[in-house]
Amino acid sequence: MESYFQLKENRTSVKTEVLAGISSFLATAYIIVVNPTILSQAGMPFSGVLTATVLVSFFSSVMMGLYARNPIIVAPGMGLNAFFTYSAVLGMGVTWQVALGAVFWSGIVFLILSVANIRTMIVRAIPRPLRFAIAAGIGLFITLIGLANAKFIVANPATIIGVSPVTPTILTFLAGLLLTAILIVRNVKGGILLGILFTTLASYPLGRWWATDMEPLITWQGFLSAPDFSLLWQLDLVNSFKLSVVPVIFAFVFTDMFDSISTFVGLAEAADLMDEHGEPRNVQRSLTTDAVATTISGLLGSSPGTAYVESAVGIEAGGRTGLTALVGGLLFLPFLFLAPLLSVIPAIATAPALVLVGAFMVRPVTKIDWFKMDDAIPAFLAMVLIPFTYSITQGIIWGFLSWTALKVVIGKRREVSLALWIIDVFAIAALLL
């Protein structure tokens, strides 16, 4: 294990990697319940999607750990599941079987692009200031997710967003945030995991005694449930290959590709997971794993799998190798039978960790030359649009397009590579479609 994962070279240990894997799992485990909730609105059986979600997360994360050796969890992506349900099935009127076929074909496109090293070329075409900005933008995005999960930030018709009034829930979140911050500052091993456990335990009185001001945070839905394999191999490969479904396949390809690429780049920059050439470590193997995750998602009965930004929780906890992803992936498997247990870990429990990980993710922003405005403006747009649009893809699209436009107009066309021109064409196509 030491030699395979190169623990000493990465200045880590088995204990640190295991704790990091647990932390990453707890930060991403919500997808086990949330993904079926969204896809069931497309007419798919909830229990079948839950089983598919667990299997995709298990196989993909284990592959990321053993093959790509990166500490990144892979699971069905948020946003992609919403597109699957609300745009493809309910909006365009395709059946969920055809939509699963579109997921499969988009995975095949990913595999071709990955094996041909085209996706790696795309990564290398991203200008360094945009890489730093993407890392910082993802950090702000993760923080926003954490604040929203804690209901600290709420919708406000007058100001778009606002701060929630002080409630027992908010006080519990703030207590968890303070404790987790103290543990991180004091470099306590497993500090993030301890913060998650503390906030979970502190939430129990809310669910039992203070449920009058809001819905209970802690619910008990049982202990065991049998897996449902009814969605395996239910995709429609023939009808999903028709011309009318091409826009759906293209949307999956483009959105998933740039979500995963930007996640790899952002996490690598923030955690210094770089190779000797200054590129994200094992990027081709990581992107190949992401492609396999999407392909098997269609076969198993889920929306596309992708790299998870919440992996930053485990990375901040010290995870630096594939052992973190391996541990996180293995922890998904028991929930084929234990899914009801997730009800005892409320969203508020991981919210402090997500908020504080933002501080870790924004570090690369200091590497941007903010006085070189033709670099700074595209970087700024990419950074702020990721959280403001609630979409990593939108942030990176407008970062690319503004970079190209500014460089051309001011006479620095040579700073726009051929690969970036090609990316811009697909970015515009994605916006139009």
From TrEMBL:
Give the transmembrane region(s): 18-38, 44-66, 98-118, 130-154, 166-185, 192-211, 231-254, 330-360, 380-403, 415-432
Q: Record's GO cellular component, any one?
A: plasma membrane
Recorded family membership: Belongs to the nucleobase:cation symporter-2 (NCS2) (TC 2.A.40) family. Azg-like subfamily.
Which keywords appear in this protein's UniProt record, sorted alphabetically? Cell membrane, Membrane, Transmembrane, Transmembrane helix, Transport
Coarse class of the primary localization is membrane
Q: Where in the cell is it found?
A: Cell membrane
Question: Which PANTHER family does the protein's record reference?
Answer: XANTHINE/URACIL PERMEASE C887.17-RELATED, XANTHINE_URACIL PERMEASE C887.17-RELATED
InterPro entries the record matches: Azg-like, Azg-like_bact_archaea, NCS2
Q: Name one GO molecular function term.
A: purine nucleobase transmembrane transporter activity
Q: Please give the name of this protein.
A: NCS2 family permease
Signal peptide, first to last residue: none
The answer to whether the entry has keyword Lipid metabolism is no
Bilayer disposition of the protein: Multi-pass membrane protein
